[in-house]
Amino acid sequence: MNIKEFIKTAKDGELSVSELIKAKRYIPSSEKTRLANDAIDLSVEYDRGFMGFDSYKKYLAFIFAIIEAHTNLRFADNWDDKIHEYDELCENELFDMIIDTFRKDYDESFLVLDMMCNDMLANNSVEASIARLATSASENLDVFVGALSDKLDNIDIEKIIPKDLDLNKLQRMLNKFK
Predict the structure, then answer these.
(1) Which among 60, 69, 68, 66 has a CA at the least distance from the CA of 42?
(2) Alpha-carbon radius of gyration of the chain
(3) Is 125 helix (H, G, I), strand (E, B) or coil?
(4) Which one, of 88, 109, 129, lies nearest residue 6 by Cα?
(5) DSSP 8-state symbol, 124
(6) Do residues 7 and 86 touch, judged by C-beta distance below 8 A?
(7) Per residue in 122-174, pLDDT tens?
(8) What's the pLDDT tens digit per position in 18-55?
């Protein structure tokens, strides 16, 4: 049933909201995860290489998906039309009535969404970026030091340093650079 049809029928008052929508009290965890991923995909934004969310868009996208997953209600295809339908549900005090038919799973579904967003943001923080950079630099430095060490092992130091080198003179010169 589309939202406009639902609102008209609910306003007539012949049937209760729960009779109209035939709500599922529970959807599987895999479905919650898929819905959360879809909402995240619609709301993720990048700014100077860092990820963030349009929180309101994330909320609305998840609301639309969670209602459709738990009920026989269908929102419009167009984003602006969906928002208008959401506003109509709220204006007619039907939104909470719909959600109340599967409230426990609604709360659990939002917890899944929040956890997934928090994980993404934690992996995208400045600290995480620095840690990845440091790990990468360390790995590259290990490769460089290993290669340099192999080369230095093959150098005959006696051939590089002149036999008549005045070590005291060299030390005085190096001290000037302190």
Answers:
(1) 60
(2) 32
(3) coil
(4) 88
(5) T
(6) no
(7) 876 556 556 556 677 777 777 777 777 777 677 776 676 777 777 788 788 88
(8) 999 999 999 999 999 999 999 999 999 887 777 788 99
Instruction: List, for residues 81-135, the tens digit of each pLDDT value.
Output: 999 999 999 999 999 999 999 999 999 999 999 999 988 888 765 565 565 566 7
Q: How far is CA 14 from CA 3, 45, 124, 126, in A?
A: 17, 44, 51, 56
pLDDT score of 157: 66
pTM assigned to the model: 0.68
Between the CA of residue 48 and those of 11, 13, 54, 124, what are the distances in Å? 48, 52, 15, 12
Query: 84, 66, 79, 60: which is closest to 7 by C-alpha?
Result: 84
- Count other C-beta atoms under 10 Å from residue 164's C-beta: 5
Residue 12: both structure tokens together: 């007539």
DSSP string, 27-85: --HHHHHHHHHHHHHHHEEEETTEEEE-HHHHHHHHHHHHHHHHSS-B--SSHHHHHHH
Q: Is 43:55 a contact under the CB 8 Å cutoff? A: yes
Report helix, strand or coil for 2: strand
In whole angstroms, how far apart are CA 89 and each of 59, 65, 96? 15, 15, 9
